[in-house]
Specification:
The chain has 20 helices and 8 strands. It is mainly alpha-helical. Helix 8 runs antiparallel to helix 9. The radius of gyration is 25 Å and the shape is globular.
């Protein structure tokens, strides 16, 4: 089992002796905090062991069946060694524990002994986990049309004697599977039943309007319900590559347009492979392009991510979420000495401990709250259901506004007809801002009146 585990999530040590020493280190003086740390590490490895054991046994049985061996006692030492090597590799790949050039490179980013501590801290803020996200990205590429390049490379290596025919067939099968998933995503998007993040040309106003109507990013639509599949990376990545291809093509068939769209289909891999931290950094740089505040904003975002990693607990956060009858959002106080982004970060971190710091019911532009369902539904969704769902909340008014917007979005000086969220910096008197309760009351009254008037 030690050999199958390979590198554990918090360590890149590969020698069992080094891992043993690392496991016995005391990090915190407080018994409670140290106990929580050890319990967390144990739970993570115990959870992995369940799936490692299952995939190892399944691969071992498959190897034996392929070689016509009915019992372990019938195996020679050489066969047993080959079977174990194969089963170990399959189990590691299935649980993202394997070592490859990509995961080894990412694991060592910013961790060289010669790297300054400030750079190490920044890298930990962007990528607290290394090997698992890197391997998720690798699987996403292998199980996609892009995996054909790997098949060709493996074929060249097989000709040189560095790979086997089975390796080539395995790579081709992965690529074929990913291509089929991409095709499914393309045609479901064409049928209006799959969505990524929408058209890249959409502005924030249209994004908010679609979310208000119940649309979800990286989802499929079943009836009037959108079901998010973003939690199913890497399997869902090639599916949404296909959907992204359809959304980007938009009826265009020229070679230049096709090449431009192909450059965008990597978005699902970045956003769904737990490399979202890197993706957020890239978006942040793009937002502040040419701005003198770019570097300070970037450093601030990374440092906030770094310091809040140890301040949250997923299980407690899920239990706290299950107790919320309505969807919540962060309320930023314009009079606070903290900037809006810092307030939101602290609010989200506090919510994962069940602490309501600057939290209020989410109220859309029509003054509607969003229910999280019955008590049973909330606990099932928080603790068992791996997906998020959203009902279509469109009204006839929404449909008409969407039609007007779509027909006139390219007309110069045409006024915005889409409803927007209320600014949290609203002043009701010079220098005086609304409290959370006043803001909620005003949002409901204003939204309902707006819908009536429209």
């Amino acid at each position: 089992m030690d050999e199958i585990r390979g590198d554990v999530k918090y360590s890149d040590s590969r020698r069992i002796a080094e891992k043993g020493i690392q496991d016995r280190r005391r990090i915190f003086k407080s018994r409670i905090v140290e106990g929580a740390r050890k319990l967390t590490n144990w739970a993570m490895e115990a959870g992995d062991d369940i799936f490692l054991r299952f995939n190892y046994a399944d691969a071992m049985a498959g190897w034996m069946q392929a070689h016509g061996i009915k019992s372990m006692s019938d195996m020679t030492d050489a066969q047993l060694e080959s079977a174990r090597a194969f089963a170990t590799k399959e189990a590691q790949e299935a649980t993202f524990h394997d070592s490859n050039r990509v995961s080894d490179f990412v694991s060592q980013l910013g961790r060289s002994p010669k790297t300054p501590q400030s750079i190490k801290t920044l890298s930990e803020g962007m990528l607290p986990f290394r090997k698992t996200p890197a391997n998720v990205a690798v699987r996403a590429v292998e199980y996609s049309p892009v995996g054909l390049a790997n098949t060709i490379y493996t074929g060249i290596q097989a000709k040189k004697g560095n790979a086997t025919a089975a390796d080539v067939i395995n790579s081709a099968a992965k690529s074929a599977t990913g291509t089929a998933l991409a095709a499914a995503g393309y045609f479901l998007a064409a049928a209006g039943r799959a969505r990524t993040t929408g058209d890249d040309s959409e502005d924030k106003k249209e994004k908010y309007f679609e979310q208000m109507r119940g649309e979800m990013d990286y989802s499929i639509k079943i009836g009037d319900t959108s079901v998010s599949l973003s939690q199913f990376a890497p399997t869902a990545v090639p599916f949404f590559m296909g959907a992204k291809l359809f959304e980007g093509m938009d009826g265009r068939v020229t070679l230049d347009d096709a090449l431009m769209v192909l450059g965008c289909i990597t978005d699902p891999m970045l956003e769904m492979s737990m490399l979202s931290g890197v993706n957020d950094i890239l978006n942040n740089i793009a937002d502040y392009s040419g701005d003198a505040d770019a570097i300070p904003a970037l450093v601030s975002q990374v440092m906030q991510s770094y310091f809040t990693q140890g301040l949250t607990n997923t299980l407690i956060g899920q239990l706290a979420q299950a107790q919320e009858e309505n969807r919540k959002t962060s309320y930023t106080d314009p009079d606070s000495f903290l900037d809006a982004k810092t307030q939101k970060t602290l609010s989200k971190a506090a919510a994962k401990w069940g602490i309501q710091y600057d939290r209020t019911d989410y109220i859309d532009a029509w003054g509607r709250k969003q229910s999280n369902g019955s008590t049973a539904e909330r606990y099932i969704n928080a603790l068992i259901n791996p997906t998020y769902t959203s009902k279509d909340r469109s009204t006839e008014v929404d449909d008409e506004l969407q039609r007007i917007y779509a027909e006139n979005r390219d007309v110069d000086d045409f006024p915005n007809v889409l409803p927007q969220s209320l600014s949290r910096n609203k002043e009701y008197a010079p220098g005086k801002h609304m409290t959370v309760e006043e803001y909620e009351q005003y949002s409901i009254a204003r939204g309902q009146k707006s819908l009536d008037l429209v």
